[in-house]
């Protein structure tokens, strides 16, 4: 049984078929947790494959996997990320899915990140981008310094899901200040629904209307996220909604290195 036959068997229902290819205009999912067993995302190669199948059906054929690097919680390194990447690739070669997978990371702004910056040992995305995040509980006072330090290394920082930082919801000017530093902003697709709550949705839609986002990611961790994404693309005109923003996902295609491609036909 082929890839799509397995994915869209009778038991899957007509609803999933309606989502087929709806996110193909983005081309690259540049923020997800699909590498198995190294953070709070996929816990096994089998789960990773299932998530990739579901995201592929939504239209993605290229994935930049961004596991957490977070002191004391997810102490990943280039070595642990490469190991999980290799494990996933071995199994991908046994499928009939034609996808391209790459590895980078989502760096928490903490003392560990300071050390990585000092040693120029960041997990950099194709194109020289570095994905960073903050705690949802409290603002990092080091944000602007971190942005500047990453830029001094010649990289381009991307702040993950700014709409989810509740402490900025009543200080919207902070988003403009971050943009003014040259830091790029990445939207979580689920934020345009109420998945993370009404306040996050309002912040996301306000930022979309203001044209503030540069990238879009799924931030997929597990099957619940995948199911919610399928629901979002059914209910929301995602492509039309994002026309106010200069979304640069497709520009990543020109930077993707051939040596990392896993293309299985």
From TrEMBL:
Source taxon at top rank: Bacteria
Gene Ontology molecular function terms on file: manganese ion binding; protein tyrosine phosphatase activity
Alphabetized UniProt keyword annotations: Hydrolase
EC number from the UniProt entry: 3.1.3.48
Matching SUPFAM superfamilies: PHP domain-like
Catalysed reaction equations from the record: O-phospho-L-tyrosyl-[protein] + H2O = L-tyrosyl-[protein] + phosphate
EC primary class: hydrolase
Family annotation (Pfam families): CpsB_CapC (PF19567)
Family per record: Belongs to the metallo-dependent hydrolases superfamily. CpsB/CapC family.
Name of the protein this chain belongs to: protein-tyrosine-phosphatase
Species for this entry: Sphingobacterium yanglingense
């Amino acid at each position: 049984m082929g890839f799509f036959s397995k994915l869209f068997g009778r038991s899957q229902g007509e609803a999933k078929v309606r989502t087929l290819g709806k996110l193909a205009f983005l081309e690259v999912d540049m923020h997800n947790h699909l590498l198995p067993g190294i953070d709070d995302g996929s816990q096994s190669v089998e789960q990773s494959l299932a998530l990739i199948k579901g995201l592929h059906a939504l239209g993605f054929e290229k994935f930049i996997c961004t596991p957490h690097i977070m002191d004391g919680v997810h102490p990943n390194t280039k070595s642990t990320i490469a190991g999980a990447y290799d494990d996933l690739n071995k199994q991908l070669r046994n499928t009939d899915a034609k996808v391209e997978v790459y590895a980078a990371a989502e760096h928490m702004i903490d003392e560990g990140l300071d050390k990585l910056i000092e040693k120029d040992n960041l997990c950099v995305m194709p194109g020289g981008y570095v994905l960073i995040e903050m705690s949802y509980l409290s603002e990092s006072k080091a944000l602007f310094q971190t942005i500047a330090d990453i830029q001094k290394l010649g990289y381009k920082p991307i702040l993950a899901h700014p709409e989810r930082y509740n402490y900025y919801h009543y200080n919207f000017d902070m988003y403009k200040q971050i943009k003014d530093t040259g830091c790029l902003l990445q939207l979580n697709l689920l934020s345009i629904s109420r998945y993370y709550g009404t306040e996050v949705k309002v912040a996301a839609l306000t930022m979309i209307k203001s044209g503030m986002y540069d990238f879009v990611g799924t931030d997929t961790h597990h099957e619940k996220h995948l199911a919610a994404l399928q629901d979002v693309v059914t209910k929301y005109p995602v492509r039309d909604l994002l026309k106010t923003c200069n979304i640069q996902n497709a520009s990543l295609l020109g930077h993707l290195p051939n040596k990392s491609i896993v293309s299985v036909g």
